[in-house]
Amino acid sequence: MHNDLEDGMATRYTSDQDDPLTADARERIGVIDESETPSSGATLELAGLNWAIGLEWQVSDNQKSSLREARSEARILATDPKFNYDADLICVASTSKGIRQFGFGNTERGHTSGQAALAPIIAFRLDQDGGNVIAVIKIDQNSNNPRWWIVAVVNGGIYADTLAADEAEAHKVCQGLANDAIMLWKDIHAPLHWGFGQHAEWTVESIAYLPENSLDVPVTLQPVYGVAWYLSHYLGANGGRFDKKQIGMACAAFLLLGGMYGYSWYQDYLEEQRFEELRRAAELRAQGKATPLAPVRDPVWAKKPLPSEVIANCMSGVSAMWQKAPGWDQKKIICGEATVTAEFAKETGSISGLVEVANTRDWPAPSFDDAGSNASITIALPQLKERGPEALLPPEFVKPVVADFFQRSGHTITASEQPGFFELTWQTVTLPADWASALDVLPGTTINRIEFDPMSNVWGFNAFVYAWQPPPPPPETS
Prior knowledge:
Layout: H1 4-10, H2 23-29, E1 43-46, E2 49-52, E3 56-59, H3 67-79, E4 89-94, E5 100-105, H4 119-126, E6 132-139, E7 147-154, E8 157-164, H5 167-178, E9 185-189, E10 202-203, E11 222-223, H6 227-237, H7 244-286, H8 307-321, E12 328-335, E13 339-346, H9 351-359, E14 367-370, E15 374-380, H10 395-408, E16 412-418, E17 421-428, H11 433-440, E18 445-453, E19 458-466
Parallel strand pairs: 6-9, 6-10
Antiparallel strand pairs: 1-2, 3-5, 4-5, 4-11, 6-7, 7-8, 12-13, 12-18, 13-15, 14-15, 16-17, 17-19, 18-19
């Protein structure tokens, strides 16, 4: 099986010279030195479980091997000095395309035996829309020094699973991945001020919505060194001889191993069945016959343009439309998120006069509406970036803060409660620059409509403040 993931990872550790994550490349991508990472830094609490993150991943050379053979292959890689994994825990995962990967963990970084790896589940989510994707996930948001987790998915497989200690390190990792042009990234979810695209970074809350069928059998870490390895290692070091105490310990170890074998075999069987289901699903998807994965639930916050960008966009559009036309009286300029429209009342002019005015301005594809006594010109505004998912304000906070701000600013405001949001309407004769930045600090606020009356120089604004709505109280029981 040949694909981008195997190109990027299967040959990734063939030698020190070819390893792109050693020396210069590690510095370019910004991989964190494990010795500098706190022991508690490689885990994440989510959905009541303690997940392992920040693993090293490698593609299996033998995609047709059994799960037990795959673990043996992973143990060989983990203990081979030339690969420099420094791993004492391993796991075996399968991508949504049916490609088997090995994950390598370390107890010194906080990983534990039996702990589930989170990156394979995130890879399933990122791969639902297809294409290569980078996701920057901010964790420990309530901490003064939050950590950052970067997951990159190539052809459905895990290409990067990197834990960064701060934003600067996370940006360096993301920049290194983004510069890897051979991967042709479809989407990069990162803080907007990093400049990688229009998708904001993820939060722990946003990754809580996971595909339901991806949690059936979590990919769990297991010790690299089993009882058999310890016995062979000790025999080799002592010329193949045991004393009586060591023989007793070996017998006890074999008894324990025999008791655990049945349980281990059953877990292997469940995991192997899961891999087979993934392979079948990959084949069906290739034939266009597969049932799609469980849809990712949208966050409660709908993406909306930033208010300051809407205001700047509309101000530019209003300035362009502020133009007199022979025989027409300009009544109103209305600006929304995507268009700005100038409305005119007819005096003695004709629609050709408006067309002539439009042709003298550098307007992008103006459209005209002639209703006899009234007419209008509409132009499209530049497309705005979208605000990413963010927490909403509780209603009891929105009302006093918004109302107090506008009342102190001398504006008239009316607020009507609606399910999920407050609608605000106000008028002012001052330019919006005075209060545009203030709206930015209120999560969930967006300008919906701006009107300008050229005759009285009055601005009218309509906005929505989206608020978190608590669930209704349970019905009283008699």
